[in-house]
């Protein structure tokens, strides 16, 4: 049985690297169907937690879940993507899940997004990420609200007033954070700018008492992230419906 969460959500009893995304999907949803759903078994035990945002589902298994029921439910909602911390039925692509295990004490010369940031700072970052994040108004509205409420962080490297590299923690919840949006302008790669951004972001997250910092990537990116203080933790699964 699947129920939609309507009251304030407490996910403290669930352990998953996807919890920050699920939590933020609950607090920053924009449609009637969007938000968090709970799946229960026949004896009323919680089996899975998942969220719906912009046609994409983030799914976290708690115990033996009814994957067929969940997939039928996703199909009914017109879901296009499924991100999961376990392999569901079907053709899922596996990505390596990494966790930050060290922090750099080196001070990095980067800019930081905050509640005082100007629209132009977001616009400059968007120029790097626009193929990944879609419409600017939707991205800016969602991301700036999370920045202002402390549920996200972002840093960027500027050269001659032009933003050339960025790294963002797009979801922060209960001392956990997910990093994504790590990108450098192709003309400025190989200069260590994105390494500066990632290390600076990790330091900022530690200052906010974030204990667990995750990201996922394809296997060929693992050596880079290992150099910035990450170790392989497991797998994350993505399926295009």
Written description of the protein model:
- With 241 residues, this protein is of the alpha+beta class.
- Helices cover 29% and strands 34% of the residues.
- The chain has helices spanning 19-27, 67-76, 119-133, 136-149, 193-207, 222-227; strands at 2-4, 35-40, 46-53, 56-61, 81-84, 93-100, 111-112, 153-159, 162-173, 176-184, 212-217, 230-240.
- The longest helix is centred in the middle third of the chain and has 15 residues, at 119-133.
- The protein is globular and about 60 Å long.
Based on Cα principal axes, name the global outline.
Answer: globular
Structural class: alpha+beta
Total number of helices: 6
User: Mind telling me which CATH architecture of the largest domain this is?
Assistant: 3-Layer(aba) Sandwich
Which sequence of strands runs across the widest sheet? 1-2-3-4-5-12-6-11-10-9-8-7
H and E order? EHEEEHEEEHHEEEHEHE
Q: Approximately how much helix is present in the residues?
A: 25-40%
User: Which residue ranges are poorly predicted, with pLDDT under 50 across at least 5 consecutive positions?
Assistant: none
Give the termini separation.
22 Å
> Any idea of the CATH class of the largest domain?
Alpha Beta
